[in-house]
């Protein structure tokens, strides 16, 4: 089997807010259909958002419904990346703990994701 492309798809009740958030994070553009938005970067679909009118955000980390998937986004300038995702509509779910190299956020639809950075060598 040869996989031609891999796209992570998020369910969301609000397609515009969710796809605009991820387009902002990935510096991409949104390609819209009625119930599906693709976030394209350099012409390639990277993330998609599917309309799910009854979507219920996961209650991270141990609630119901539980987390189903998350993204780790590795950044070279965590403070700048943090400010950018917050400005785009993310909210912090778990602050950085001493010794960690990640912080956990939720996107506008409540899907968890992490900003990660290399530990100092």
Structure description:
With 121 residues, the protein is of the alpha/beta class. It has a single domain, classed as Roll (2,3-Dihydroxybiphenyl 1,2-Dioxygenase, domain 1), CATH 3.10.180.10. The chain has two helices and eight strands. The strands form two sheets. Strands 1-4-3-2 form a four-stranded mixed beta sheet, with helices on one face. Strand 2 and strand 3 form a beta hairpin. The longest helix has 12 residues. The radius of gyration is 15 Å and the shape is globular. The model has no long low-confidence stretch (mean pLDDT 91).
> Could you spell the SSE succession in H and E letters?
EHEEEEHEEE
- Helix tally equals 2
Give the name of the CATH architecture.
Roll
Principal-axes shape call: globular
Largest sheet: 4 strands, mixed
Terminal CA distance reads 39 Å
* CATH fold node name: 2,3-Dihydroxybiphenyl 1,2-Dioxygenase, domain 1
Strand order of the largest sheet: 1-4-3-2
Class based on secondary structure composition and strand pairing: alpha/beta
- CATH first level: Alpha Beta
CATH superfamily: 2,3-Dihydroxybiphenyl 1,2-Dioxygenase, domain 1
Q: In percent, how much strand structure appears in the residues?
A: 25-35%
Number of domains: 1
Helix content: 10-25%
The count of strands amounts to 8
Rg over C-alpha atoms, rounded to the nearest angstrom: 15 Å
How confident overall, as mean pLDDT?
Answer: 91
What are the low-pLDDT stretches, counting only 5+ consecutive residues below 50? Answer: none
